[in-house]
Write a structure and sequence with these properties.
This protein is globular. It is built from four helices and six strands, in the order βββααβββαα. The longest helix is centred in the last third of the chain and has 14 residues. With 131 residues, it is an alpha+beta fold. Strand 2 and strand 3 form a beta hairpin. The chain starts with 9 loop residues before the first strand and ends in a 17-residue tail after the last helix. The strands form two sheets. The protein has a three-stranded antiparallel sheet. The chain has a three-stranded antiparallel sheet with strand order 4-5-6.
Length: 131
């Protein structure tokens, strides 16, 4: 993980609702695409981290982001369409998720398999966004 002082700052966020992805650009020129599902299951909230005992978040394959709210000059609050809105995604958290997403995703899938859990939504919903 990257020390806070060495963490690049976020210079752009672009939500792609149809593909459920968030494009994140950093001031070092790097750009990453993170799935809304990855952002949700690795939320930095106490609800997910369980005060040191991480909770396995399931059934979030189709989760999307409803709103992105800036928090000072160091983070954003992501509001997910499943109602989750308590995690603050600092630039460090976003950079760590982006640069470690392959390993994090593999770990998540392994945890799901071990728990015989699923990514699939409990209720299949067709959500349409109006512009």
């Amino acid at each position: 993980m990257t020390p806070q002082s060495d963490t690049p700052k976020v210079t752009g966020l672009k939500l792609k609702r149809k593909s459920r992805q968030l494009e994140v650009s950093f001031d070092n020129g790097q750009q990453y695409t993170l799935s809304c599902e990855l952002l949700r299951v690795y939320s930095p909230s106490a609800e997910v981290h369980g005060h040191g005992n991480p909770v396995l978040v399931t059934h979030k394959k189709n989760v999307n982001i409803n709103a992105i709210t800036p928090v000072g000059n160091y983070a954003v609050k992501l509001v997910f369409d499943d109602g989750h809105d308590t995690g603050l995604y600092s630039w460090k958290v976003l950079y760590d998720l982006a640069t470690n997403q392959v390993e994090l995703w593999e770990n998540y899938l392994a945890r799901l398999r071990a728990a015989k859990a699923s990514r699939e939504p409990l209720i299949d919903m067709a959500v349409k966004y109006h512009t």
